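Researcher: Next entry in the queue.
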Amino acid sequence: MKKYEYDKNEQKLMRKSPIPYVVYQFVHNKVVIISFSDGFSDLIGVKRKEAGEALKGHMHNNIHPKDVARVGDLLHEFVAGAPYYDVVYRYKAKGDAHYKLLHAYGKHFNTADGTELSIVWYMEEGCFAQTNSEDGELLDELKNLAKKTMIARENHYDLLTGLPNMSYFFTLATEGRNAMNKKGKTTAFLFVDIIGMKFFNSKYGMEEGENLIHALGRLLVHHFGLDCCGRFGRDHFVVYADAEGLKQKLTALFKDVKVANNKRSSPIRVGIYEDIYGDVSVSLACDRAKIACDQDKNTYVSSYHFYDEELRKKSMMRDYVLTHLDDALSEGWIQVYYQPIIRSVSGMVCNEEALARWKVPDGMNLSPGEFIRVLEDAKLIYKLDLRVVELVIAHMKEKEEAGIELVPVSVNLSRHDLFLCDMVKEISTRMDKAGLDHSLLNVEITESVTGVDVEFLKKVIIKFHRAGFKVWMDDFGSEYSSLNTLHEFDFDLVKFDIKFMKDVETSDKTKIILSQLIEMAAKLGVETIVEGVETAEQAGILLKMGCHKQQGFFYQKPLSIGQLVEVYTKGNGLIREKKQERSYYRTISMVSLLKPDIKEEGLIGTCFTMVPVGVIEYRDDEFYILRGNKTYVDFLYKADFVSDKKKLQNSQVLIRMPEPNFVAAVKKAVASDSWVELYNSVENGIKSNVLLRKVSEDPVTKAVAIMIIVLAA
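Model: Structure for this entry, 713 residues:
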């Protein structure tokens, strides 16, 4: 149906009428204005041009916000064919300080050619706030009528903003896109989200938040037109528009947003889907616009982002992951690979990390980055993580049967797991059913989880500890880490992000920061791991810093359970730490090389930051280097105990025996629990005074770890 047009004489006569009325027509599921009288312009207190603009927006700026949806919905029903239109609502003319009650009444009629039109007359019924006027009874009756009809019917329009709701927007956008296609234009779909709405509500209150949402709705109508906009709930809006000139419109919109709602506003984020990726429904187009909108959630300025080919591939991957998750879990597509974690002082495997992999039957493998974030966003990640726990338990049994020493395995938990189910109970139940000690499994929680409620996370960690599990914090330093994390939460270990390894060999700043963090954690009784170790030089640097554990390709790439069993069956596996030795090596690892704990009276000072400090192992009448700060390694090199100070390795045997007095002092320290003092010890011409003390004894090898402090003579 085409829009009806009066001839010039009829239009002129209708416009000059002093009676306030508007003629409407229903065209392509839209309410369109055919004509309106000067009397209507006078009623709302504006010139004719402004009145026309107000009508296009269903008079959003004039009607009371709580009446907008009701009036728009009833008008739509009437013009679409409802038998009558009789509505009372609150209305404010331009320049008025208070709302008035407006009574609108409508009828249908046919033109000479049979076109059905709808005419609505408008009458003022008085000031809404008036209570003592002579026609008070009439006003009270009208107020009651207005209140009764204020119930949101939401057939077509959103209650708060008066914009088309989701279903009606889909109808309008479908027809609008078809019309644009016929004209050779490209349609763009916009998803609009207010940034920081939760913070805005907490600062100004929920009512002011609704005012902001209403204000943004008016701005969208102003820039794109009422029939091109919709609200999908909360602070989410959608728009369809001509892609040409869109950037200029958005620039103007962003400018207006800054001063919206009397400058109590917040920036917006806009995702744009251009209709160039094949024939998709309006619903899917809006979904893709939302995907683009969600790309950059860290900025606090108005911005827009386009849905592009990269995002298209991501959305296809998302759909694949969500639709095939159950098959992946039941058909064995989810597999676990193991990467060893090495104890710095021994060079032995002390832990393993379980890494989830998704193997697709057709040979395509999904990386964790492709499926983990999707499952987190969909709140389905707990299914994957519990499956990983089940596989880890099953693989422990396989290792035992193959005669492989079991070391604790760490599994990664998402922040969502903690809310979606009782992970402590779920993991405990599975471990108990398998008859495995809880100490064989550690849980890793990413640093981002510390953004959740502090007290809640504390309680979760306590529950894990009471159940016998250690809790690690993963990826410390990946974003804007806070040292308060170490203060607030009782983590057993902190894993430093891989980025520390990128320039640790060349950047003094990185060395200083990392070494101080490691030392601080040790003082708090918290173990440390640095991941991403790729060279012997990096491993040596971490050993000097006192990093307790290391992980990276330098030691081994992740292996499937089949590969791991095969390697150890052939005798090619890395040496694994025995359960009885864990306490021994942990004690050595936690010794501070910067500020050794010296409490006996008469000994020199308590701070040895620049003094050579190390830990050696005395075993079978030979000496091995376990740990040493930089100055101690320099001393060993000058005293001809090592051939290359840049390649310090764990459990490295000294290339020559120390002088007899030192050996005697070591044997004395082995038999004592106190510090032993050695004066005027001479090694390769270097005279020094030495403090020695037993640190721990290996229950398996009977080796003894001795702490050494070298002081100038």
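Model: The mean pLDDT is 87.
Researcher: Noted, moving on.
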